[in-house]
Amino acid sequence: MNVLSDHFAEFREGFLGTVELTASSALLALVLGILIAGFRVSPVPALRAFGTAWVTLLRNTPLVLLFLAVTLGLPALGLKGWDSFWLAVLALGCYTSAFVCEAVRSGINTVPVGQAEAARSIGMTFTQTLGQIVLPQAARTAIPPIGSLMIALAKNTAIASGFNVAELAALQKQLNADEGYNIYVIFLWIALCYLIITFAISGLFRLLESRLAVTR
Amino acid sequence: MSASVLYDAPGPRARVRNRIYGAVSVLAIVGLVAFVIQRLDTTGQFQAGLWEAYEYTDTQHRILDGLLTTLKTFGIAALLSLALGALLATARLSDHRPVRWTATVVVEFFRAMPLLIMIFLLYAAVFTNDPMWALVIGLTLYNGSVQAEIFRSGINAVAKGQSEAAHALGLRKTQVMVHVLVPQAVRSMLPSIISQLVVTLKDTALGFIILYEELLFVGKAFAAQTQPVNGVYAFIPMVIVFGSIYILLCLALSGVATWIERRTKRSRKGAPPAPPVAVDLGTGGSGVVNP
């Protein structure tokens, strides 16, 4: 008997659960991360301070603690009725957004000041400089680190298994507890599922990188 | 801000506008913080009954025990992962193809696996009633592989002329590595190594999920035992207290990293013309970017 064929429906559900969790949190992390990066490079000191505090707090908190804070804290504050899936998305998205912010910010910092100065000197407006000169160059530098952050995010979704979300790690725990299957075989199948997801993400980002590549 | 890529030095109108944006954002942030505090207050999180348990020496001893367990786990895992990292990096830099390939497969496999999956495997199959070793070995395998990549890129970043010169002097492979490459590489690697150690420290909290009695587990158990006051459980005070402990620990460790970085930079300036060491290492795949 084979674990995969016996529990194919569960495997499919777990796989889709992990994919959905990764995709939703990635979206939240990218949106929040870019927003906070905008704060951190803005000329407004209060926003910069807020951005720095956000990044420092979230980067130095264990993700498990963040999960605990979200799953126990939000209901205690009166935000009841959230699905455990969306609570997990919130924890993962906020955590990863701090790292995305740093990647975006260092991408912006690698653009030489001369580029923007040249753009201004030929009369480009702020929006034109940002949209046509600075951000396209910053994006090319920021994309590879964001790719490895997304892979790390896919791996981090495993932590959601400890907080009632149906995904691959939870399935592994459940199958380990069912007697009768070889634990190493279960591990290999679960590992393969994660490998598929991480390879897909790295392939996607490699594609993006080669599409955007220009000689500089 | 005059040297920023994004903004030109502000003129009088931009300065006024920035001041208005500043005022609005201060108001918004103060409003947000006030809202959170008000929310915490109306749901009764600041009631003295939820917090006074932290004043008991008994509680403090339990927190200290949890902290020591976390630090012990971190210490063992850090040492083992550095040792494994050194071993794997040496193997990946080996001249013998089979050794190199084996090490590459090992490193790539463990870096691609979610750590928790490894820990579940170890806990279910090898260390069935010893969660500490399941956690330590899981952390070692994962972080050891990441450290191996940091070491390897550090060694590769040393200028090629260094090893060529050493070989020309008649040093053997081991001597070149130990006396020439490693001492130079360590300097440029230290910040990355330490930020990976911060990741290791944070990941010890995964022990919570396999019910290992480390700091976070102690916190949750403690909050669950505290008598609810007017129907409010002590979870938020727990998150605040234990979150601060973790954040301070990690900040202390990253503080060491920045201190070392600054020190090595200063000493290089004073030293006689040292060879240019490539400053830019890969982040070792961990995705951690130094601020």
From TrEMBL, chain A:
It is a multi-pass membrane protein. Signal peptide: none annotated. GO terms for molecular function: transmembrane transporter activity. It is found in: Cell membrane. PROSITE patterns: ABC_TM1. Its main location: membrane. The keyword Membrane applies. InterPro entries: AA_ABC_transptr_permease_3TM, ArtM/GltK/GlnP/TcyL/YhdX-like, MetI-like, MetI-like_sf. GO terms for biological process: amino acid transport. Keywords: Amino-acid transport, Cell membrane, Membrane, Transmembrane, Transmembrane helix, Transport. GO terms for cellular component: ATP-binding cassette (ABC) transporter complex. The keyword Cytoplasm does not apply. Residues 15-205 form the ABC transmembrane type-1 domain. Belongs to the binding-protein-dependent transport system permease family. HisMQ subfamily. PANTHER family: AMINO-ACID ABC TRANSPORTER PERMEASE PROTEIN YHDX-RELATED, MEMBRANE COMPONENT OF AMINO ACID ABC TRANSPORTER. This is Amino acid ABC transporter permease.
UniProtKB/TrEMBL annotation, chain B:
One of its GO terms (cellular component) is ATP-binding cassette (ABC) transporter complex. The keyword Transmembrane helix applies. It is a multi-pass membrane protein. The chain crosses the membrane at residues 20-37, 74-93, 105-126, 232-260. It comes from the Bacteria. GO terms for biological process: amino acid transport. Residues 282-291 have a biased composition (Gly residues). Its main location: membrane. Residues 265-291 are annotated as: Disordered. Keywords: Cell membrane, Membrane, Transmembrane, Transmembrane helix, Transport. Residues 67-257 form the ABC transmembrane type-1 domain. Gene3D superfamilies: MetI-like. Pfam families: BPD_transp_1. It is found in: Cell membrane. InterPro entries: AA_ABC_transptr_permease_3TM (IPR010065), ArtM/GltK/GlnP/TcyL/YhdX-like (IPR043429), MetI-like (IPR000515), MetI-like_sf (IPR035906). GO terms for molecular function: transmembrane transporter activity. Belongs to the binding-protein-dependent transport system permease family. This is Amino acid ABC transporter permease. It comes from Streptomyces caatingaensis. The lineage of its organism: Bacteria, Bacillati, Actinomycetota, Actinomycetes, Kitasatosporales.
